[in-house]
Amino acid sequence: MFSKPTPPWIVLGGFGLACMAGGINAVGFLGMHHQAISHMSGTVTVLSNELATGRFSLAVYAAAVVLAFFLGSVLSAAIIQESTIKLGRRYGVALVLESALLFAASRMLMTGNYAGDCLAAMACGLQNAMASHYSGAVVRTTHMTGIITDVGIAVGLRLRGVPLDWRRVRLWLVLLAGFFSGGVLGSLGYTQIGIATLLIPATLAGVAGVGYFCFKQWGR
Fold first, then answer.
1. Residue 161 pLDDT more than 70?
2. How far apart are CA 21 and CA 178, in angstroms?
3. Is the overall model pTM greater than 0.70, yes or no?
4. N or C: which terminus of the chain has fewer CB atoms within 10 Å of its end residue's CB?
């Protein structure tokens, strides 16, 4: 169980990051390739299907997206050097880099360059690896399969008489609400301005990164 109250910056930051990922994923699904960007389960399935049916060009595309997500995670670990959430780590650098990747992705996709999907996936991989654990809870901001599973396990244990760790469950529900809200906003944005919707999470990531850096400097 959480040994102390969850700091507001973790709750707000988690909601914001999940909201951004939900918006990015919505644009990916509504875009030219109808491609999941923020999670790789579906993309790996696409890769296996395309290989099985001999459509190798699409298989290469799916493999490139998966590889980009993986490289984003590698890059995040190299920058932050730790998977446990803790104030003071180099999240600002990671967020500014995520912003740059999303700006480049939107630019490429608006000109018809499908490599933009890879850059957006790299940004999501980087973000997802930024915050992996907090007080024993697995924290993911770019996909909700694990979050929903964890909530389900908690409810199942409660039905068997095991006390709920409400702080942990509330954090998971905040992440789920953020991802869902981002999906709604991303879909609405895509119907109005298309791929340019990616500029919104790109800007938010940049502002958050610079703000976090300033906060660290002020704290020192």
1. yes
2. 9
3. yes
4. C
